[in-house]
């Protein structure tokens, strides 16, 4: 729409004079998201049979949605000749000239159009059209001519040329950027109802994260001619294209395609070849005529397994229509081994099994209908850093139109699979292809799970699962119960110089964000063993909310155990860990990365009896109490004596002195050197490990090496070599503080969780040895 402001004019018997100011320009009729400010003017005069006009329009702050296009200008002049010129700050110029006579009466005259783009900015238009930030630049010039008369000319009436000197398109995401560059100039020639395209070569590039630079990723070539009534020929070639350019793994793509014949009798032929060191080889062929195209694909894996896909797409190329509702495809494979795929999935340590297929799809649009089955046999997998390898029961996915049923997937009393019994049941509903729904249930009995790393381990031989997973991609819920019976967890105080795991990803997954939780975790007889504590705990925690905003409700009771504080063993008299937050925590991933995000409430009390004060002779019972949120909790110590004459201990430092030195009222003269060194060394050990880079630095209250007397403090230092040697080794040196030269060197290699090979040497006492340690549990 245009706001008009009329100015005084005149009118004669056969002439007119009109002037108008243009304002409030509305460009949404050209494109729904196109906007601009500006205005212009137009003046028309002269006789109706031969008018004259002058005008101009200025467009400022042009935007396509939120993308700035800059400014543009349009000028018009009409007398004997019509002349219009459009220029834009983006680098584009169009100029049209033609005689005015054919515009107002019979006759034919040539119209000429000059086109020029000089470093034209295509970024906003490409970004708007493709929905992702892109950079684009275009350089071209051209001259086209057509006869202008009673009807509008088409491409068949054009003559002239367009020369493309430069083209560059690049995605703006630097970490995964892709780029297209014109390698050789493109020449389009128009004449006598045909368009001729000289060979155009476009180079592909992608950003290589390993080399931190863009690398060549193939070449695209296009050539041929399009003729109105005679046979045409267009050739397309993709040469040595990097499969990673299209988001795949490393590999090369070759494509040769040709369209020939006429619009009413076209011929289409295309050959595809893909080779990947990870996925194997893919060969494809498309042959088409006026009625449609037949295609054939064959994928051969690295294990020489194959999958064949054939199909047909009816079309009408002259009308530019594909009949997807009448299209079909068939997929068949006797079995594809999955062993090679395991290396491509970072979360898996092992993957094996075979998948077969006998499937037909009719209608490749909203009319899709599926018939057949996909078989899964001998599927085994192991998660990274976890044992054992789980061997899942065999089964099939049976397709009946849009309904998919899980058949089989059940096994009982086969403990060598990583569980004793397991079943997976349910169905998938593909009625909505954009949001398929599902209703699945997983049950497992006596499932096992082992985790072992340097200094820590977790073993569970009795896990029962009963989980349901229902909903759709847009809204789902995981609910059920997990019971873990008699698990064992061991942790060492040794600080390992291993890489810190990366924090959880900041970007959220839509599927996980829309997943509600309702899972109860029942923990029975959890045994925790470390250098600070040995406890047994049981309890239940309900995990609700959503994946990214979970709620933890429940409690865990410490049934029995000991904690070790300042070289003293405290017996736990009561202990409870309560999860009762009403507000959601951070995501499940954040909790796994930092368990303190749960911030449970602790209520723990531990006691040691009969600590004798060597100076006063009285015995005390010391109680350690921890109460409050885990992130802010502070320990509280108290001491009582059954002897009424004993002095009360009110200050924490007095109780600490009693625990460390067996003397609440401590003077410097009373200080036990060995005890002081032991405590100081233990307090400093973590800082030394951190600053010096040792994996272990510990001051021990006593040592069992040859020559050490009971109660003599000793120093142990160690380093774990996991990458610099063919075998992972612990190398330790331990010696009494009073005689550091009389130490023992020890080398340890853990073959399995139950098998350790050790070697030791102590030259002063001529002690040398090689041993094998076995550890096995019997029930």
Describe the structure concisely for a colleague.
This protein is mostly beta strands. 7% of the residues lie in helices and 60% in strands. The radius of gyration is 40 Å and the shape is elongated.
Fraction in helix = under 10%
Percentage of residues in strands:
over 45%
Report the mean per-residue pLDDT as an integer: 82
Query: Given the helix and strand composition, which structural class is it?
Result: mainly beta
Describe the global form. Answer: elongated
> Could you tell me the number of beta strands?
47
Topology:
Elements: E1 3-11, E2 15-23, E3 34-47, E4 52-64, E5 67-78, E6 81-88, E7 92-99, H1 101-104, E8 109-121, H2 123-130, E9 134-148, E10 159-171, E11 178-184, E12 186-191, E13 194-208, E14 213-227, E15 232-242, E16 252-261, E17 266-276, E18 280-288, E19 292-300, E20 306-316, E21 321-322, E22 328-337, E23 348-362, E24 369-383, E25 386-387, E26 390-391, E27 395-401, E28 403-408, E29 410-411, E30 421-429, E31 437-453, E32 456-472, E33 476-485, E34 488-491, H3 510-513, E35 515-530, E36 533-545, E37 550-565, E38 568-580, H4 588-593, E39 601-612, E40 619-629, E41 636-640, H5 652-661, H6 673-692, E42 696-700, E43 714-721, E44 729-736, E45 744-752, E46 755-762, E47 767-774
Parallel strand pairs: 33-35, 34-35
Antiparallel strand pairs: 1-2, 2-3, 3-4, 4-5, 5-6, 6-7, 7-8, 8-9, 9-10, 10-11, 10-12, 11-13, 12-13, 13-14, 14-15, 15-16, 16-17, 17-18, 18-19, 19-20, 20-21, 20-22, 22-23, 23-24, 24-26, 24-27, 25-31, 27-28, 28-30, 29-30, 30-31, 31-32, 32-33, 32-34, 35-36, 36-37, 37-38, 38-39, 39-40, 40-41, ...
